[in-house]
Amino acid sequence: MINFRKLEKRDAVNERVELIFYKVIEKDGKRMLKPLDIKTSVPIGVVKAVWDNTIVETFYERLANDLRERGIEEGTLVQLRVKFSASNTEFDPGLKGIHVLCEVKV
Question: What is the mean pLDDT of residues 77-105?
Answer without folding.
Answer: 84
